[in-house]
Amino acid sequence: MVLRMVVGLVLTAVALAIAGRRLWWLGRVALSGQPAPERARYAKAHLAGDLKTQLTEVIGQRKLLKWTVPGAAHAATFWGFLVLLLTIVEAYGALFSRTFYIPGIGQSAALGFIEDLFATGVLAGIVVFTVIRWRTSPRKEGRRSRFFGSHTTAAWAVLWMIAAVVVTLLVYRGAQENTGVFPYAGDGAWPFASWVVGRWLHPLGYGVNSVLEAVFILAQLAVVLAFLIIVVYSKHLHIFLAPLNVMFSRRPDALGPLEPMRSNGTVLDFEEADPDVDTFGVGKVEDLSWKGMLDLGTCTECGRCQSQCPAWVTGKLLSPKQLIMDLRDHAFAKAPYLLTPEGQREGLPEAARAEAERPLVGGEDVNGVIDPEVLWACTNCGACVEECPVDIEHIDHINGMRRHQVLIESAFPTEATTMLNNLERRGNPWGLAEDRRADWMAELDFEVPVIDGKIPADVEYLYWVGCAGALEDRAKKAVKAIAELLHVAGVKFAVLGPAEACTGDPARRLGNEFVFQMLAQQNIQTLNEAGVAAGSGKKVIASCPHCFNTISREYPQLGGNYEVIHHTQLLARLVEEGKLTPVTPVTEKVTYHDPCFLGRHNKVYTPPRQLIDAVPGTTAQEMHRCKGKGFCCGAGGARMWLEERTGKRINEERIDEALALDPDTISTACPYCMVMLGDAVDAKKAAGQARQSLEVIDVAQLLIRAVKLRQDQPTQAPPAP
Ligand code: SF4
Ligand code: SF4
């Protein structure tokens, strides 16, 4: 007993010292990042009002369970480990007394059963993981594998390690059954797995079983302690960090609004900011906030983000997983430099100083950590953030680096220059004259009031048309349909016409926070002067999901608060209230493409589908990738204005998926998506790969066919003469 106790305690002391040293180092690395006081607010919200979400996220494994089989395997392993913490207590107790049991519950047969149930659950999970990893290994699937680029050898080692934790546990418990010190009362078969192992070991006799009991208790503790060390030195660090990362996440704002620019934890005021003193975006890894650093350490390399990323799927260099791993490897390699006081860095090893000199963004020629092609390939679609089981905020990392590249380095794709200039000079990305914003109304057979000063008292809605809606030919048709539907339903609305300017979304997503703020402040002033601020009783209708997202969720950062509704939400309500009655059949197969900034970023999935269903005669078809797993059209993140030179075009990938359903109509609810998908359909038609009759339209255009036809063509047969 004494030897068992001494060996067990020495092993524990050594392992805790190694793991503790590593955790201390990791903590210092994380805190070398910028302050992030706003995260305390998020944590408070998660822990107070949002505790249920926190529990479903971490304990309930919500995001993991969206992937049924691997999610169930992970949940079984995670829950198993929670329960098996009790067996570790028992193993430590057995170092001091062979007959140890946890006071109060330790002799209950139910506890023995539960422990064995979860132990076998962990083993089953490991078997499933093994099969998944084997079937989808990068060697077999190449870059289609979500594990492509992950540290697979370490992952295999950990799988075997976890299996060893359970096997050693069952062997010592089986031996305990035979030596008579197994603590559980009543029928010894309740802890069924231990009982089975005990039956196997029984023929070896009391002496051998006593030795096995002692050796495997120590082996169990040794494996657990070795596992602890592996965890803190590997991607399995997420076991400790994931709950923290989830607690401090920006959820639900990690999708939707971008973060304001901060320097040293304070929101940057461009009037006062000094590039020599302040942090402009992320130009060095230590410009990340400590939460950004925490993200890097938390990544499990599961590859869920990578498998859903439209850039990666279509053959671009960008993988959100690889981006996080590259930043992490760089942060760890640069850590000796970061953790050494400035005057003492000369004495650092050459490798640490060389790592410190690597540019964060740069091509192979300058040994950059993140290739510029990676940085600019992102569409900000949010699939990575949505999928990540540990709430890593990839878009914040990407846009932080974009901000620095644009504002400090002036290094961004040259084709974006025109768009930015147009925004600054004309307030729209195309550089068209302001008065062209009213052109679309010329085709209407009714008047839309253009606000000149304050919105009239009897007008409830301000329709924010958006640049594409006002100026792009295809999008204009959707805007016209929306206006007509509102008119038919008797909704009183007005527009800003030439007084409307771009919300600033393309500038902000590109990283030009300065231009964004300029446009946002101008629009906020216009909207406030129009008298539509929140609390005024007036509402803003946005038909562009980018405008919808920016006005409703980003303008509050600058003091502009409005009640904003997307046109699909309003139209669905009008149909429900009977103010729009689509009765004329439109006999078509219709598939719906979820715009990322409406769906994933703002969770508006149902109203557009309700509109399609409301049109009689339509057969709604869902693409394989829809709703939360929807696939981007390729336009977000200012990608609409950038060339797509590598791999397959994202819009063509999406259209190929739609064409597999052979639809008559592809519908959507975003002018950007209409343009991108429309272009891809045109290319397919030109190549003879799509029917000439195939259309890409807004759901409002579909709805108005059923509503308008009814007015033009009486649906009831004329009375018999
Ligand atoms: S936001 Fe979309 S495009 Fe950008 S990294 Fe994430 S998944 Fe890829
Ligand atoms: S970032 Fe998240 S989803 Fe992507 S590999 Fe890491 S843990 Fe998985």
What is this entry, summarized?
By secondary structure, the protein is mainly α.
Describe this structure in words.
- The chain is mainly alpha-helical and 721 residues long.
- The protein is 53% helix and 5% strand.
- It contains 29 helices and ten strands.
- The strands form three sheets. A four-stranded parallel sheet has the order 4-3-5-6. A four-stranded parallel sheet has the order 8-7-9-10, with helices on both faces. A two-stranded antiparallel sheet has the order 1-2.
- The protein binds iron/sulfur cluster (2 copies).
State the main characteristics.
mainly alpha; disordered C terminus; binds iron/sulfur cluster; globular; 721 residues; four-stranded parallel β-sheet
SSE arrangement:
Layout: H1 2-31, H2 38-47, H3 51-58, H4 68-96, H5 109-135, H6 138-141, H7 152-179, H8 192-201, H9 205-232, H10 238-247, E1 262-263, E2 266-267, H11 290-298, H12 304-308, H13 310-313, H14 320-338, H15 350-357, H16 372-376, H17 383-387, H18 394-409, H19 416-426, E3 461-464, H20 467-471, H21 473-488, E4 493-495, H22 505-510, H23 513-530, E5 539-542, H24 545-554, E6 564-566, H25 567-576, E7 589-592, H26 606-614, E8 619-621, H27 650-659, E9 665-668, H28 671-686, E10 695-698, H29 699-712
Parallel strand pairs: 3-4, 3-5, 5-6, 7-8, 7-9, 9-10
Antiparallel strand pairs: 1-2
Helix pairs in contact: 1-9, 1-11, 4-5, 4-9, 5-7, 7-8, 7-9, 10-11, 11-14, 14-15, 21-29, 25-26, 26-29, 27-28
One iron/sulfur cluster is lined by residues 308-311, 318, 320, 378-384, 394-395.
